[in-house]
Each structure stands twice: as C-alpha cells, then as structure tokens.
Amino acid sequence: MKVKIQAIAAAAMLTSLLAACSQSADQPSGAGAPASAKEEAKAGQTVQISAQLHVTPNLTAEFWDGVIKKFEEQNPGVKIKRVQAPEDPEQYVKMLLASGDMPDVVHNVRFPDLVKANALKPFELDDDIKKIRDVESGFINGKLYNLNDVVQPQSLIFYNKKMFADAGITSTPKTWDELMADAEKLKQKSFTPFLTSGEWVTGFTMSVLSAPDTFGQNVRWYADRAAGKVHFTDDNWKTAAQRWVDMNAKGYFNKGALSLSYTQLEQQFLKGAGAMYPMGSWFTAAEKDAKDKGFEVGVFAVPSTNGDLRLAGGINQSGFGISQKSKHADIALKFVKFLLLDRDNHKAIIEKDALISNLKDPVDYPMTPLQTEIAKLVKEAKVLSGHVNVEVGDSVGAPGMAEEFNKAAQNLLMGNKVDQVLKSLDEMWDKNSK
Length: 434
What we know:
Elements: H1 7-20, H2 35-42, E1 47-52, H3 61-74, E2 78-83, H4 89-98, E3 105-107, H5 111-116, E4 120-121, E5 150-153, E6 156-160, H6 161-166, H7 176-188, H8 201-210, H9 221-226, H10 235-249, H11 262-270, E7 276-279, H12 283-289, E8 297-301, E9 310-315, E10 320-323, H13 329-341, H14 343-352, E11 356-357, H15 369-380, E12 383-385, H16 401-413, H17 418-432
Parallel strand pairs: 1-2, 9-12
Antiparallel strand pairs: 3-10, 4-10, 5-9, 5-11, 6-7, 6-8
C-alpha cells in the first residue's frame, strides 16, 4: 500500500548514510542480548523497544495495539512503543534512519535498501525460524534480514458475478485475448470493465496485469536487468505497456481513476461501480465484511498470453526486520517471533489479511469460498513469481523502482508515448544503480 512522501529528500539522506554507516560485521539478531537489557530487567526497570508496524484497512492500529498488549502481558517489564508511518512506511523509515531514530523493529519496508545501509541485523537460522518454508528465498547476500511466514497472491482479478452473467460471460478468461473480449462484452452492456485508482494502485494494477508475461516468464527478471541482460524497452514490456494504453483508449477503466484513493477504490468495487478489480488476496478480508453489496464476488488469476497459469505475489515478503543499532535486539527478536510464530497470532494476522500460512506445519483458518478459490490457484500455478512491486530475495529493483513505475503507469494513462515512458524507466534504473 504505497503512497510515496518526500522521496527525493529521503533518498538523499539515505545516500549519505550509505557512505557513513559502519562497515562492521553483522551480528545475528539471535546472537544474544546486550548486557544493558539484561541488567535493566534484573533491576526491575521497564525495557522499551519501538516497533514500526504497517497499518492497513485490515491490520488496523487497534489490531496491532491488541497484539502488543498481549505481548506485554506475557513479558512483564517490557513495553512496545508502536510507531506508525503517516503514509508510506518505506520512505518514513528511511527518514527515521537518516535522523538516527530508526525503530528497533521495522515492517513492510524495502529491505535491500536498509541492508545496503548496514541498518539491519541478520536473523540467525535457529530452530524457530527453520519452522518457516522457503526461508532461503528471502536471502540477501546469503543472509536473512526480512522475516515473514506467509504467501500472498497478488496477480488476481476479482469480478462481479452478476455483471458477468448480465454480459453473457459464462466462464472466466484463461488467456489475455479472452480477457479483452470479456471487457468489450461488459462495456457493451454499459458496465465499467476495470477499476483502478491513483496512489500506489496505478502502478500495482499495471504491474500485476503485466506479470504473467514478464516476471512470470523470468522469475529473475530484476537480477537480469541489473546484469544488463534485459530491459524495459524489450518487446515483452512494450507489449505490456501497449496493452495498458489500449485498455485506457477503449474506455475499459473507470473515469477519474487517478483522483481516487485506494480506500475509495475498494468501496467503489463493493458498491458495484465496476466489473473487475485487479488486487491482491488481502481484498478478500474486506469482501468478507461487506454484507450488503448485493452481488457475489468471484476471482481468477490475471491470464497470460498462452493460457499458462503464472501467479505473481509474495513469498515470505513484506515482513519484519531488526535494527542494527537496537540496544535490545533480544527483545526485538522475541517480539518478531511472537508476531509470526505464536500460532494464535499467526492465525490472527493471516485471517485478518487473507494470507496463506507458509509454515512447515501450516496454520489454517475458516476460509470464505473466495479465499478457498485463491488457495486453489496457488496450488495449481505453474509459476509463482514476484513483479515490479514485489522483490524476491536479492533479485531486486533499482532504488525507487516501484515509485518510478507507478509514475510511468499514470503517465501512460495521461497520454505519454510507450517508447518514451519505457526508455525513461531504463534510464532511471541506470542512474539509480550507479
């Protein structure tokens, strides 16, 4: 959920930090507690750590406060100060890092940038962390800095079953051409085929619609771009961008989309303002709570050109990290493990945010029919990849890539030329990677 604030200033401050930060060897966050924390506990003093926890419509401030209260009750003498980003957590944490106020625990940030700044402690792969499947997929430079234990499908299209039926659509599309044919049928019935919005959603929508034929064809696309083997000006991205432009030209998107916020967009779909809503699996939590929408919601994966099911999303991504300078790294580690590995908390988080457990002994929760269908798509997918907004391990974009791609998606909707926009993405990559 990304709305970028003060990006230029934050980037400048982070660049300064990259040169200034200590180059000392990383000490794993499981390597023992600082003496000060133990001494304070023995003396009966309160030990406080700060935790930046990403607040969303599903994982609300009240939800996090409840989890914190439970942890504090189980750990007398420990207090958690919750830090909330005013808008975007990535830029906010970078600004806190630049000012020397980085929280002990950070959440849902761009971990490669913080690793490069030597701002995070690596996690020790102890018996607890080994309970998580695919944990090695998140390694950066051979170490684990981002801890999470969920699968989050994102290249999904939720649809209004009543509108589909009224338009004579009897099955969900399996190829891109079928998707566009269905969009035209919907438009002919005076339905808005697709909904999108401003903020981070524009780039996200273009990214997931493009994913099956870009990242789905090359799960290491970011790594290959860093090596100069692929570019945004390649044919597959030209095709993806032209499709995006054509959808807009044909009137397949809602009018005034860029003026809407993410929250407004979600409500627009639930009120029946459009037929299809490309969004991640977290939407199913909001759909579950919308009792009076008056129609049934279905879901299918964004189709590829040839019909192969290639799903994009996160595997153990957007998790938790621990500050390199935390004075109470042992407490921070205990809190992170409490969030992720306590089975009650794990269940609460994945149920609230409609995620799929990625523990070796997975935690289940009562799924809605929509969530069950998504879990089936995950099992059937030939490929599970990242996309522009989701990096996997050390296959990462250039600094600022997601923000720049979001601008590119919006610029294309406002009439900018495909070749010009794609060229600007490559130029931005080369400039920011130096």
